[in-house]
Amino acid sequence: MKRRSFVKGGAAIGLAGFSNGIGMADTQTKMHVPPEEDRHELTFMQWPVNRGVHPDRIFLGMLQQTIANIANSIADFEPVILLAAKEDHAKARKLLSANVALWDIPTEDLWCRDSGPLFAKQKDGKLAISNLQFNGWGGRQIDKKDGQIAKRVAERLGIPIIASGLKGEAGGAEHDGHGLLMAHESSWVNNNRNPNISRDEVEARLLKAYGANRMIWSKGLYGEDITDYHIDSLARFTGPGRVLINLPDQPDMRDPFHKAAVVTHDTLVADGLDVQVIPEPNKRRVKSYDFVASYANYYACNGAIIAAQFGDEKTDAIALEALRKHYKGRKIIALNVDSLGEVGGGIHCATQQMPAT
């Protein structure tokens, strides 16, 4: 359950001269982030290229192929825009289907859920970007380019970008699109992102950023991984008040991730949510302790769920059946995304939806 390792020494502040990266003039705008399972206009993804982050050339090639496989799978159901510097387009194009477009927006890494644009609808139904300013997970990884992606997408689309007053990542907050948010405190109430801001104030700003009215907090886990334990690799909303959570069959309460996960599960149940547990795989292709094997880190696109399988025939089947029940009528596409697990994430981490208007 451990997440990607820290890449120290290369972090950049990003959009210097701005408050949390974006001017604060439009903070009174009312917005609403729709449920992920609502219809999309398209999906954004990012092309990983930075050799400081991914020094092994062969592994970087494997990672790029995985991103292409995910993009091509989504593109069978809705358009995909892959963000990459122009000089990287030729290599990426060779791996991509015709339904995947390339935009000249430079990137460092692949985590579009975190550094990409969080789209919201304004009162008139038009789109805006509700900005949770990415800062390299609290200065742990270079974000000179990735920290500007949301701003550059907004400029290209000609839509407003509205500051939340927070530094953080959309992978650190799960929303059901019907007024309810859940998150780990460790990813938000943290001096590496939001120094001197109380939990109550962080909550108020998150609720406003998503257009939600209620928040469920669990403690999470500080400092054990680069994300400070993002909730989207553990628990996901599948509808109003309905959650899928990924837990080991026999949690080891000496493992800080297992312990934090059980606390989150119990918190959600105590709050009255409908919580279904799906087991973690017991037999994986990748045996590394740090490997992230999260069935919960799937992506809901138009007409399909893009999900991971890890080589455990029993638990793969259980997870895919749970997704079929929660997303009736959608096709379930199961992919081998082991290279993402090796760098601490999954399919949801690599994608960001643009809602249909």
Question: How do the helices and strands line up, and which of them pair or pack?
Answer:
Layout: E1 31-32, E2 40-46, H1 57-75, E3 80-84, H2 89-93, E4 100-104, H3 112-115, E5 119-122, E6 127-133, H4 136-139, H5 149-157, E7 161-167, E8 173-175, E9 180-184, H6 199-210, E10 214-218, E11 235-239, E12 242-247, H7 256-270, E13 274-279, E14 299-301, E15 304-308, H8 313-326, E16 331-335, H9 338-342, E17 352-355
Features:
357 residues; L-arginine/glycine Amidinotransferase, Chain A; 4-stranded mixed sheet; 9 helices; globular
Description:
The chain is an alpha/beta fold. The protein has a single domain, classed as 5-stranded Propeller (L-arginine/glycine Amidinotransferase, Chain A). It is built from 9 helices and 17 strands. The protein has helices at residues 57-75, 89-93, 112-115, 136-139, 149-157, 199-210, 256-270, 313-326, 338-342; strands at residues 31-32, 40-46, 80-84, 100-104, 119-122, 127-133, 161-167, 173-175, 180-184, 214-218, 235-239, 242-247, 274-279, 299-301, 304-308, 331-335, 352-355. The strands form 5 sheets. The protein has a 4-stranded mixed β-sheet with strand order 1-5-6-7. The chain is globular. The two termini are 37 Å apart. 51% of the residues are buried.
